[in-house]
Amino acid sequence: MILRIINDGGPVFMIPILLILLLSVILFFIAMIGKRDARQTAELIGYLGSLALAWGILGSIIGLIGAFDAIEAVGNVSPPILAGGLKVALLCPLFGLVCYLVSRFSMLALVFKAPS
Predict the structure, then answer these.
(1) Residue 23: CB partners within 8 Å, gap ≥ 6?
(2) Considering the domain boundaries, does residue 71 fall inside one?
(3) Whether the Cβ atoms of residue 97 and residue 53 lie closer than 8 Å to each other
(4) Residue 29 is assigned to a structural domain of this protein
(5) Sign, CA torsion 102/103/106/108
(6) Which end of the chain is more exposed for a tag (fewer CB within 10 A), N or C?
(7) What is the CA radius of gyration of the chain?
C-alpha cells in the first residue's frame, strides 16, 4: 500500500520526504533518551519538517504543470481522468504535511523535555 502511494505520488519527491520523516523520528528518539541536546535537536527537526513540506509542495507544482501541459496538448480530457490526476498531484504535499506535523509534535515534546 505505502509503496503504491509513493509510486503514485512520484518517487523523486516522495522518497526524500519519507527519508526526512525517518530522520526526524530517529533524531527525536535520540534526543528523548538524552544522547543529544533536546533544544538543538528540536530546532533541527523543525527545519527538516519545513523542508519536507516545501519539497512536497514543489513536487505538486511540478506535477500539475506537467499535467496541464499534457491536457493542453490533448485538448478535451474526461473529468474522471482529470480528477485522478489531481488526486495524485495532492499526494506529495499531503505526505509533506504529515511529515511537517510529526516534526512539530516532536519539537513540542522536546521543548517540554528540555530543562529551562
Answers:
(1) 48
(2) yes
(3) yes
(4) yes
(5) negative
(6) C
(7) 18
**pLDDT over threshold 80, residue 94:** yes
Q: Are 95 and 22 in contact (CB under 8 A)?
A: no
Q: Which three cell numbers stand for residue 66?
A: 506537467
The helix, strand and coil proportions of the chain, stated in percent and rounded to the nearest 5, come to: 85, 0, 15
Give the CATH number for residue 105. 1.20.58
Give residue for cell 530546532.
43
| The pTM of the whole model exceeds 0.70 | yes
Does any domain span residue 81?
A: yes
Q: What is the pLDDT of residues 46-62, one digit of tens each?
A: 999 999 999 999 999 98
27 in Cβ contact with 41 (< 8 Å) = yes
Range of the domain at 37: 2-110
Number of domains, the chain:
1
116 occurs within a structural domain: no
Show the cell assigned to 40: 538543538
**What is the dihedral angle through the alpha carbons of 24, 16, 11, 90, rounded to the nearest 10 degrees?**
70
Give the CA dihedral 26, 16, 99, 50, nearest 10 degrees. Answer: 100
